[in-house]
Amino acid sequence: MQLSTKHLLGIKDISREDISLILSTARQFKEVLQRPVKKVPSLREVTIVNLFYENSTRTRISFELAEKRLSADTINFSTSASSVSKGETLLDTVNNILSMKVDMVVMRHSASGAPHFLAKHIPAAIVNAGDGINEHPTQALLDAFSIEEKLGSLAGKKVALIGDIMHSRVALSNIHLLNKMGAEVMVAGPPTLIPKYIGEALNVKVEYDLKKALQWCDVANVLRIQLERQNQVLFSSLREYNLAYGVSRKMLDSLGKEIIIMHPGPINRGVEIDSDVADGHQSIILQQVENGVAVRMAVLYLLAGKRE
Amino acid sequence: MTHTELQFQIDKLADQLLTLHPDLSEVAFIGIQQGGVALADEIMVVIQKLRPSEKIFYGQLDITFYRDDIRKEILAPDNMHIPFSIEDKKVVLIDDVLFTGRTIKAALDVLLDYGRPSKVELCVLIDRREHRQFPIQADIAAMVWPTEKTDKVKLLPDDAGNKHVVIIGKQ
């Protein structure tokens, strides 16, 4: 069993079989994480650099922990403390790092397509940890893993992605993944935050009424309002956004059914989701974070076998 | 080896294990994926028949993440399930074939990450003694088979379903 790809750049580029292999391997790694010694020697001869050109808490820690649990050697790089601030190009920076014999690159970048560009120019395996508004494949994989864990399988399940679809790489990766695995997908939010032709282009349902979306779905994946990527006014105020599109306890209680609540983090409490929902019994937000380590271990493990 | 012969060897192994370990409460039997689990499943059925009222500690171990040949190929892992503490237990590792000894070495690594057993023993169906690469020997071996190094010896289900037969073939 092998992945069909040498890099993990996006869910768009991998097959249904690749996704299944990653998820089933992640289940075995989750078992490893329950052991007294939560570490295996699989990647002891592999060196991985974590290149973070954009801020991150969960993803960076999760990748680093996954690498350490696999016994890989790791180097961390963040732009603020590097020569990038002196004007070095991305390719120069990476080539310099690779000349020190690094096998894999985990990269987050604010420019969409940055990891795809790197993949064309360097020999190392690349894992996309989020590129601009394009994709965040490991987040979609850990979301899928968490849904499977809760509901058994993805096929036929109804998943609503709620909020800032326009600027969300999590949304795009989730849409590709859920479509490939046979789930039904809906995007819901204000019209200004949902790309115009997304329904036809990506085979998803579009809904502008939050309550209707929640009534339809088995799982609601609530996305963060990405204020840092919005350079124009797309809704009048956070308060108004919360009133129209914030997921509240009252609304969940009015549905007459239990749905699962997810959020990729970081949460804007009181904006896209209220605290009593985020911390409530339907929320699996912290399980998502826990599963993230197992899923990233699976991705790194399987890609390590594809090195030349 | 036919299924009847295999069943005879399995009965013999179960009998030997019970002779060595009359008190089952302090022993944990652990099969190594995949052939070892197939064999251990059968041995456990026999032991449970001989000691119907006693609880048997039985688990399955997978060495995929501990292999020393990751550079050659990546394998998809099998299930790992040890639902009890092995701390201070006598662990009996069970495998179908003992060949180079590398699998057992990896299995010991896995086991020690789970806890500190008071003793570890090895029980195999077939010992291919002349091809050992590590200083590892079985405590119980049903048979010693002289083989060529390129032979493959495996415990497999036959056409009838879950009955196991051992086949040998040139690679």
Question: How does the SSE layout of this entry go?
Answer:
The complex is a heterodimer of chains A (308) and B (171).
Chain A: H1 16-32, E1 47-52, H2 58-69, E2 73-78, H3 90-98, E3 104-109, H4 114-121, E4 125-131, H5 137-151, E5 158-162, H6 169-180, E6 184-188, H7 198-202, E7 205-207, H8 210-216, E8 219-222, H9 238-245, H10 249-253, E9 260-262, H11 275-278, H12 285-304
Parallel strand pairs in A: 1-2, 1-3, 3-4, 5-6, 5-8, 6-7, 8-9
Helix pairs in contact in A: 1-5, 1-12, 2-12, 5-6, 5-12
Chain B: H1 3-20, E1 27-32, H2 35-50, E2 57-61, E3 90-98, H3 102-114, E4 119-127, E5 140-144, E6 151-157, E7 164-170
Parallel strand pairs in B: 1-2, 1-3, 3-4, 4-5
Antiparallel strand pairs in B: 6-7
Helix pairs in contact in B: 1-2
Short overview:
The complex is a heterodimer of chains A (308) and B (171). Helix content of chain A is 40%, strand content 15%.
Account of the 3D structure:
The complex is a heterodimer of chains A (308) and B (171). Chain A has helices at 16-32, 58-69, 90-98, 114-121, 137-151, 169-180, 198-202, 210-216, 238-245, 249-253, 275-278, 285-304; strands spanning 47-52, 73-78, 104-109, 125-131, 158-162, 184-188, 205-207, 219-222, 260-262. Chain A has 12 helices and 9 strands. By secondary structure, chain A is of the alpha/beta class. Chain A has a 5-stranded parallel sheet with strand order 7-6-5-8-9, sandwiched between helices. The model of chain A has no long low-confidence stretch (mean pLDDT 93). The longest helix of chain A is centred in the last third of the chain and has 20 residues, at 285-304. In chain A, helix 1 (16-32) crosses helix 5 (137-151) and helix 2 (58-69) crosses helix 12. Chain A has 2 domains: 11-135 and 289-304, Aspartate/ornithine carbamoyltransferase (Rossmann fold, 3-Layer(aba) Sandwich), CATH 3.40.50.1370; 137-288, Aspartate/ornithine carbamoyltransferase (Rossmann fold). With 171 residues, chain B is of the alpha/beta class. Chain B has one domain (3-146): Rossmann fold (3-Layer(aba) Sandwich). Helix content of chain B is 27%, strand content 28%. Chain B is built from 3 helices and 7 strands, in the order H-E-H-E-E-H-E-E-E-E. In chain B, the strands form 2 sheets. Chain B has a 5-stranded parallel sheet. The two termini of chain B are 19 Å apart. The chains are: A alpha/beta (308), B alpha/beta (171). The interface between A and B is medium-sized, with 22 and 20 residues.
